[in-house]
Each structure stands twice: as C-alpha cells, then as structure tokens.
Specification:
This protein is of the alpha/beta class. 33% of the residues lie in helices and 11% in strands. The chain has one domain: Glycoside hydrolase/deacetylase (TIM Barrel). The longest helix has 22 residues.
C-alpha cells in the first residue's frame, strides 16, 4: 500500500509527480511473528542500567518512570564567536514493526554510535484491527485508514520497540493515524478542530493500548505521552497551516511537516519551530531532491517500488551520496541542521535503508574523528535552539544555503552572544 501527495516534489516532471507524489508513510506488511519483552521495572537494556520506578498512568498502558535515560548534557548558549555545532536529525515516519527487523536494526545502529533519532509513531499501529471502529477519522468513514492496520503480533512488536526506543533516549512523536492524502478526506482539507480530534485519537491509541488489546503480559510504555509529545510530521507533508493552531494550543514546540525546505537555520511559524525536509544535492542531476527516502526513490524508479534489480547498486550509491552531500554542504558552510526522513520499508530491494545506514555511519565517523557533529532527535535540537540568544539565532537564520560566515565563525558571531 502506498500513500502520496502531489505537493512540493523536487526534481520531478509533472507526469512523474502525479504518478508518485511527495512522500509515503508506514506501509503495513503482515507476515511475521511479533514478540514481547522486558519487565515492568526493566531498564534500558544496556548493561549496568538500574531498574526504574514505575508509576502507572490511566489504564497502565503508559507510566511515569522518571527522567528519560541517555540524554545529552543540558544545552547552553553559544559563547561569543563560538562555531555552532552541526546538528543531524534522522527521523522515521510511522515507526511500526512489521516483521522486517528494520526498527531494531536502526535502534542498534544508533546505540552503537551513541546517537538519537525521532520516531513519528502512527497511533493506529497500536490499535488492533478488530477494534478499528474506535477510530473516527475526520471526513472519512469510521474505521477507515489509507495505511493498513497491523496484525496483533506486529502491534506487540511495535510496543516492545517503541518502549526500547524511548529507554535508549530517542523521541516518540506522532504521525497521526489514517494517513489520508487524497480526495475530500485528505488531511490537506482538515480544519484545526478536526486536527484536534485526530491528535486526541492518536494519543488515546498510545495511552489506552492495554484497554484496546486486553493484553496484560506486556510492560507499560515508560513515558507520559502528554509530556513526551511535542512535535509531529503530517501525512504526505500536507495540512500544516491548519495543524499549527491546534498544535500551539497543545503546547507543542515544533512541526516537521513543511515540504521543500532549504538547508538554512529554521525559524518559527505560528509559534512553533518549523523543521522542514530539505532540498539536497542529487548526484548526476542539476536539480535537488527532498531529504526523504521516498523522494529519492521517486526520482529513480518513478512509478514503482519494485524496479528491475540491475538498477539497485547504482541507485544505492546515488542515494547514499545524496545524503552525504547534504551533510557536507551544511557542515562546510552555514552549519544549518540537516534533517533526513525515512520509512521502515524495503523499496527496491531495501537499497534506501542501506543508503541511510551508510550515510549515518559516514556522519558518525566524522564525529568520531573530532567533528562537532551531534546526531540528535528533534526534541533535543529544539532544546538547544530554545536556549540560544535571539541575536545569535538571527545571525544564523540570515545565512543562505551554502553561505560561508564572513570572516569565519569567530568573527561572524563575535559579540553576538555577549
């Protein structure tokens, strides 16, 4: 199953854009056995991690377990003339485990490199299909969804891995529920009131999974979702303008739904940090591509996710180098944060997952060699933004794509943080 939008496609002709659209999300495959894990007071799974006190919330689907483990030091303002770090955020839309092992694969990769990511969880991935009529999507029939419901084994696997992700220090955001991108029921047409309904339901599927499933043999998700949830990415990057008033009322701090952003320092939109997917170099072409696996695919295989396999080696290399080029352009010039969007998918033989991993390892290796690179979640990034002095942010935000600081960073920012 595939869901797409027709907005913001970079580097595609009209026919290809109409065929493929902008961005897909969380396809639900259904062919593997899930598994539970952990005890109600288990730690993060890392050796030597102490057990945590659990205070159940509501029906016990979630629980307060104290401060999130494995967080970076409290952010501080830049010193006068200090070079800004290079922030990199890898994020995942849907975040459901459907038997491919991809969720666990990238948790392991992050753990090995002491890195953090953001997982935009689709609420329906914690709702059994037998209870789908609990979902009342705006402008769509009750129980409808343009992504598949997970089978029970996959719901259990997703619960296990979302729990582990938070304990490993990652952020759990939301990708909402039914992923409607076309027709009158599209999220592009939802009002702020309808977005509030969708958000309330997404929260309820996370905070009431125990009631909805009847399962008593799985541990609670170890966080208070009301406090954890501070940002989102909309389906197909649609509907942001009407989402933002609802998000602001809820006290959210950012939104990652803008399409076609450029590699510049972000600004606020309707009171929230606007953290868009970005246009990045696309090797072999004059145009740029959006920094998401699906958009690279759309520029390679156009109307299929199962192209002839002889294309895969070259496309894998092209995708990898696109991500690396985007990172290098930012790191070597304006130090704008670099955002990458992903899906747990095996499109074109899994080459995009391979490309993400290769690029991730390249960036992590630059960090290990001494580069001031921070592989963080969106939450951790906005934590840093929020403590910077306005005049420093203004100087950073004034820099164009690939613009070098005049006179070097020490000169450019000297006095701005005084």
């Amino acid at each position: 199953m595939r869901d797409v939008s027709r907005r913001g496609m970079i580097g595609l002709g009209a026919g290809a854009a109409a065929a493929m659209g902008l961005a897909a999300c969380g396809t639900a495959q259904k062919d593997a056995v899930g598994h539970a894990g952990g005890s109600p007071t288990a730690g993060s799974g890392r050796p030597g991690t102490p057990k945590r006190t659990v205070r159940p919330i509501g029906d016990g689907s979630t629980a307060y377990t104290g401060k999130q483990p494995h967080q970076p030091a409290e952010p501080v303002p830049l010193e006068p003339g200090e070079t800004p770090p290079q922030f990199v955020v890898f994020s995942w839309d849907g975040a459901g485990e459907v038997g491919t092992g991809l969720f666990e694969r990238f948790l392991r990769l992050a753990r090995e490199n002491e890195a953090h990511m953001t997982f935009f969880l689709s609420g329906l991935y914690l709702l059994p299909e037998s209870k789908k009529r609990l979902y009342d999507p705006p402008n769509n029939p009750r129980g409808a969804s343009d992504i598949g419901y997970l089978n029970d084994d996959h719901v259990r696997s997703t619960l296990k891995l979302v729990r582990q992700a938070w304990l490993d220090g990652h952020e759990i955001g939301t990708h909402f529920n039914g992923h409607f991108c076309a027709g009158s029921g599209s999220v592009a047409n939802w009002t702020p009131r309808q977005w509030r309904s969708e958000i309330a339901q997404a929260k309820s599927f996370v905070t009431e999974w125990r009631t909805n499933t009847g399962w008593t043999d799985l541990p609670a998700l170890p966080f208070d979702y009301e406090k954890e949830l501070i940002g989102a990415r909309t389906p197909c990057l649609l509907g942001q303008d009407n989402l933002l008033p609802a998000a602001r009322e809820l006290g959210w701090r950012y939104d990652a739904s803008s399409p076609g952003g450029v590699q510049r320092w972000p600004q606020k939109k309707q009171g929230l940090w606007d953290l868009p997917l970005q246009a990045i170099p696309f090797p072999g072409h004059r145009f740029e591509v959006l920094s998401m696996d699906y958009n690279i695919l759309a520029n390679q295989s156009v109307a299929t996710t199962r192209a002839p396999s002889y294309n895969y080696p070259g496309w894998r290399t092209q995708a990898t180098n696109s991500y690396i080029s985007g990172f290098k352009r930012a790191y070597e010039t304006n130090r704008a944060p670099f955002f990458v969007g992903n899906h747990f998918e095996d499109w074109n033989g899994g080459i995009y997952m391979d490309a993400v991993e290769k690029a991730f390892k390249y960036i992590a290796n630059e960090k290990s060699k001494g580069a001031d690179v921070r592989l963080v979640s969106f939450r951790q990034f906005v934590d840093w933004l929020d403590v910077q002095r306005p005049e420093v942010l203004a100087k950073l935000q004034s820099m164009d794509v690939a613009e070098q600081p005049v006179g070097g960073w020490k000169s450019y920012l000297r006095g701005q943080a005084a």
